[in-house]
């Protein structure tokens, strides 16, 4: 199937309701544009922006994990939430998500796939004993997200501890060595124009550092001084003077001064100042020293790619002023872009609005203290921003807190509204959502000063560049891709046929055709578990072609730097206790922790549907050769033999005549062409022979009947495939694991001498609050005393995200 055919099929299957929702989004954008057109004088960028967004549907993905530090033998539990990047509504475009654990050398340690249903899915991983102690990146993405690149994937820092494998020693680094970056507000320093500069100071691991600094001129005069807070963020204001250059000296408290250059200073241009002291409005002032002076400029505002406002203002004495109502901005990050009178972008500034329209989650327990092995009940309530009861999809983790495990600084709200729209690593993003704290608001604005937007390039919009999508949306299931090449590695060209098969009792076979580059796509429906994938060209017509398989996992990695591994703040006793507890849990409950739910298989038929006739050979007299089997009781197939070469021809039942061409033959779903080989095959290995006794059409091809052989175990029964068939390991949808937690419902169970050393008391990835917006969860405490956290996160279908946490103690 070519990409064009797949996309046509994709949109033919999209529900009318979903298309209606997309249409309404476009209508809202148009109404918003018309409402502001009088201010923007029909600014043409607005139309270009809206057209670009409509052609560039984007997804976000968030993983809720039960915690972020694990020891070998523990299970990592997670739930995936996939939304559109605009409204944060659950995205039903992708049915597959890819999840990986990446080591410090950007090598995958573990890879798996998550089946998605209405933008939700779940996965688990038993931390293997082969990992080396250290920090890893847990990342997740869809095939469609690969078009944007790895910087848009979900990434999270995970710490793994293996008592048998110590961390790799890192090169010793100067602990006082700082990385200092300067970010002029709007993007530029210009001679004679006052500009606020955002400052970011981190160590080698990317962790923010408190520091002090000064800016000195080329004449060694101290122009200004500045400091940074605990997240390493600060600011200063500089007016560059003609003929002078500047540099900064920065140090940690009591440390040595280190020298850093400031950004390049332009002799002429524009600068920007954003002032939000007015509680109702934001004032954006644009300065210019151009000669001759600029006549006017435009301010374009959007939030999460939704157009907000476009304004025009004339310059007066080198200054243009805009006023924007705060109430009119979207929630999260708003993007302010200044265009000159030639409609070219010259300045950019981000502004953060703490979201108010969130899913309100209330988590409560009947009491604050519980005894060992006591039943604990949690009441969950979900409401929409207006107070209406909400049927929300939630996930919940109940974990023990200690020196190694604390509540995380990231949640679904901070990710969707902040982290996902900024490049680089952000320290404790959830802390920016406490809008009652003035210091937090100031730090959030410093964060906006020191980060940029990343979801599009203005050049693409202004040049009306049509997006090129290399990766297709996996709307029905996983898409396996490859290239057909000749013996010299040259692409086959367009129109060549290929087959991809997953052998088994419920096999899948997909037919595809190559494009001009020889690329061929095979869309599979969801397949659970790992398997062997067989890929081949049509050996009848193109026996000299080979297949270069393309792994569905991304081979590109982001430049985001995660913190280096450290045991700082983690007590050795706490780590030792955690290791001992999980080892004992594996001894006494290891088998119960390996329970899996049966996979949901929506379609059990073969790719050609139902056969016209099935012959289950155990119901017949067993013969010694396949020739006897066909001649004795398969009248739909005629056996012909010329010397030592066999042919099998299928009867075209509608016309009661045998086809003259060879049929498509399958063994456990794998196509093959060597009739002699199957005639020499042991009939006792064959469970069933299915016959399609008519012409069959698939992938634009016509087959004169089909003969499908099925072995008892679905493993080809030792049949030797042609050497041109490429066999690779295939990672199907991960089978869901059941979370094990003992139930102490009787006195005998409560008094059992088997130790219960669970630090994760409860994990539930599929909670639905129902139309009443309420549900109750229950579980039992373990034998471990301490403080526990109940962490609940989730999403409403209308795009409202929520997160809540509450605590109790066991003693």
Can you put this structure into words, describing what you see?
The protein is 13% helix and 39% strand. The chain has 811 residues and is mainly beta. Strands 2-8-7-4-5 form a five-stranded mixed β-sheet. A hairpin with a 5-residue loop joins strand 46 and strand 47. The longest helix is centred in the first third of the chain and has 25 residues, at 16-40. The radius of gyration is 32 Å and the shape is globular.
Number of strands: 47
Into which percent range does the helicity of residues fall?
10-25%
Quaternary arrangement of the chains shown?
single chain
Whole-angstrom Rg: 32 Å
Q: Structural class per helix/strand content?
A: mainly beta
What would the principal axes of the Cα set say about the shape? Answer: globular
Distance between the termini: 62 Å
The strand order across the widest sheet is 2-8-7-4-5
What portion of residues belong to β-strands?
35-45%
Helix count?
10
Average pLDDT score: 88
Largest sheet: 5 strands, mixed
């Amino acid at each position: 199937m070519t990409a064009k055919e797949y996309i046509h099929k994709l949109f033919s299957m999209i529900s009318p309701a979903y298309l209606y929702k997309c249409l309404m989004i476009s209508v809202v954008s148009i109404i918003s544009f018309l409402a502001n057109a009088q201010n923007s004088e029909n600014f043409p960028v607005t139309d270009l922006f809206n057209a670009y967004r409509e052609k560039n549907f984007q997804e976000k993905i968030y993983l809720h994990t039960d915690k972020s530090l694990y020891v070998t033998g523990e299970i990592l539990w997670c739930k995936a939430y996939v939304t559109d990047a605009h409204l944060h509504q659950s995205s039903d475009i992708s049915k597959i998500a890819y999840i990986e654990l990446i080591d410090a050398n950007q090598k995958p340690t573990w890879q798996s796939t998550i089946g998605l249903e209405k933008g939700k899915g779940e996965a688990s991983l038993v931390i293997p004993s082969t990992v080396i102690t250290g920090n890893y990146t847990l990342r997740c993405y869809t095939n469609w997200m690969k078009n944007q690149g790895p910087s848009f994937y979900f990434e999270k820092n995970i710490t793994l501890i293996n008592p048998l494998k110590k961390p790799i020693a890192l090169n010793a680094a100067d602990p006082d060595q700082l990385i200092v970056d300067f970010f002029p507000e709007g993007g530029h320093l210009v001679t004679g124009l006052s500009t606020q500069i955002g400052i970011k100071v981190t160590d080698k691991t990317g962790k923010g550092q408190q520091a002090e600094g000064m800016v000195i001129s080329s004449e060694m005069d101290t122009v200004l001084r500045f400091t940074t807070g605990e997240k390493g963020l600060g600011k200063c204001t500089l007016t560059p003077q003609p003929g002078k250059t500047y540099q900064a000296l920065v140090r940690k408290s009591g440390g040595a001064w280190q020298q850093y250059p400031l950004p390049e200073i332009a002799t002429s241009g524009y600068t920007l100042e954003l002032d939000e002291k007015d509680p109702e409005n934001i004032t954006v002032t644009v300065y210019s020293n151009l000669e001759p002076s600029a006549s006017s400029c435009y301010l374009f505002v959007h939030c999460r790619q939704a157009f907000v406002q476009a304004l025009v203002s004339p310059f007066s004495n080198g200054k243009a002023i805009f006023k924007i109502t705060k109430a009119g901005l979207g929630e999260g990050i708003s993007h302010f872009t200044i265009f000159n009178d030639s409609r070219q972008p010259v300045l950019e500034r981000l502004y953060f609005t703490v979201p108010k329209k969130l899913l309100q989650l209330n988590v409560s327990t009947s009491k604050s203290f519980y005894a060992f092995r006591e039943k604990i009940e949690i009441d969950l309530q979900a409401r929409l921003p207006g107070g209406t009861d909400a049927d929300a999809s939630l996930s919940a983790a109940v974990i023990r807190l200690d020196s190694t495990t604390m509540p995380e600084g990231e949640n679904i709200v901070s990710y969707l509204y902040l982290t996902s729209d900024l490049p680089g690593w952000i320290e404790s993003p959830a802390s920016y959502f406490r809008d009652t704290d003035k210091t937090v608001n100031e730090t959030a604005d410093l964060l906006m000063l020191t980060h940029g937007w990343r979801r599009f390039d203005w050049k693409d919009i202004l040049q009306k560049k049509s997006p090129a999508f290399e990766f297709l949306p996996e709307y029905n299931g996983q898409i396996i891709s490859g290239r057909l090449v000749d013996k010299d590695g040259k692409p086959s060209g367009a129109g060549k046929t290929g087959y991809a098969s997953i052998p088994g009792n419920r096999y899948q076979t997909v037919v595809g055709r190559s494009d001009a580059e020889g690329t061929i796509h095979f869309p599979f429906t969801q397949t659970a578990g790992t398997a062997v994938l067989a890929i081949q060209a049509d050996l009848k017509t193109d026996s000299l072609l080979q297949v270069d398989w393309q792994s569905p996992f991304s081979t590109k990695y982001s430049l985001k730097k995660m913190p280096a591994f450290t045991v700082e703040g983690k007590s050795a006793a706490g780590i030792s206790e955690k290791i001992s507890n999980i080892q004992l849990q594996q001894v006494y409950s290891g088998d119960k922790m390996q329970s899996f739910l049966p996979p949901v298989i929506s379609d059990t038929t073969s790719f050609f549907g139902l056969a016209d006739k099935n012959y289950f050979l155990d119901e017949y007299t067993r013969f010694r050769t396949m020739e006897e089997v066909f001649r004795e009781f398969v009248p739909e197939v005629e056996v012909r033999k010329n010397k030592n070469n066999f042919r099998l021809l299928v009867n075209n039942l509608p016309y009661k005549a045998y086809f003259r061409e060879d049929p498509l033959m399958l063994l456990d779903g794998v196509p093959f062409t060597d009739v002699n080989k199957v005639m020499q095959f042991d009939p006792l290995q064959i469970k069933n022979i299915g016959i399609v006794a008519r012409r069959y059409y698939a992938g634009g091809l016509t087959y004169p009947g089909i003969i499908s052989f099925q072995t008892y175990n679905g493993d080809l029964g030792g049949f030797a495939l042609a050497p041109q068939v490429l066999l690779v390991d295939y990672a199907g949808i991960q089978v869901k694991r059941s979370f094990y937690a003992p139930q102490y419902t009787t006195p005998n169970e409560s008094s059992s001498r088997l130790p219960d050393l669970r630090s994760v008391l409860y994990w539930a990835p599929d909670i639905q609050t129902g139309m009443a917006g309420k549900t109750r969860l229950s579980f039992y405490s373990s034998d471990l005393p301490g403080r526990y956290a109940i962490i609940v996160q989730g999403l409403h279908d209308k795009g409202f995200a929520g997160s809540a946490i509450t605590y109790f103690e066991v003693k």
